[in-house]
Design a protein that fits this description.
Structural class: mainly alpha
Number of strands: 0
Strand content: under 5%
Shape: flat
Distance between the termini: 56 Å
Oligomer: single chain
Helix content: over 70%
Length: about 170
């Protein structure tokens, strides 16, 4: 999902031709996985296309006029150039969803699980105690797990009380 957002920005704002091709390839690969297991031959073809597009992206940026040197003497690179290099260097990680059925195309669920903690930190400036942070994390983990399993939250909260106590009318 991060790669697709960055590619969309490069495509729309920077008008980089390779970004649209990479975005389309990643969406196609996701579609192929959603249809069922991807054959080794199909995965190899997708990997070759991926490499070809990444190389076009790197070549595109190397043909651009260089940016000023950074403070530490390193040559600055454009955002798209950094993305192309990252896609090249982490190709196996970016395409892992093709060969491992348990790896999702996006990491949106993991981001959503962490987002509430980050919001809490921004609003209140953090947690007052370590135990408060641990209680918050435990509670969020419980609710997230229950939601992922499709269980009614209210029922999940009440179930421990129902099994330990006998509810009778007085």
């Amino acid at each position: 999902a991060h790669h697709l957002r960055e590619l969309k920005g490069l495509e729309e704002i920077e008008k980089e031709p390779w970004a649209k091709s990479m975005s389309r390839l990643l969406k196609l690969a996701c579609h192929q996985v959603n249809l069922g297991p991807v054959s080794v031959a199909r995965a190899a073809r997708l990997e070759r296309l991926y490499e070809r597009i990444v190389n076009k992206g790197i070549a595109f940026h190397e043909a651009q006029t260089p940016l000023k040197r950074g403070l530490r003497g390193r040559q600055k690179r454009r955002h798209g150039h950094n993305l192309a290099i990252r896609l090249r260097d982490y190709k196996n990680d970016a395409l892992r969803f093709l060969s491992h059925a348990n790896v999702p195309f996006t990491n949106n669920q993991a981001e959503q699980d962490i987002r509430m903690i980050k919001v809490k930190q921004k609003i209140s400036g953090g947690f007052r105690t370590l135990s408060g942070a641990q209680i918050f994390a435990t509670t969020r983990t419980f609710f997230s797990s229950i939601r992922k399993q499709g269980i009614n939250l209210f029922q999940a909260i009440l179930n421990p009380f129902r099994s330990n106590f006998s509810w009778t009318r007085a």
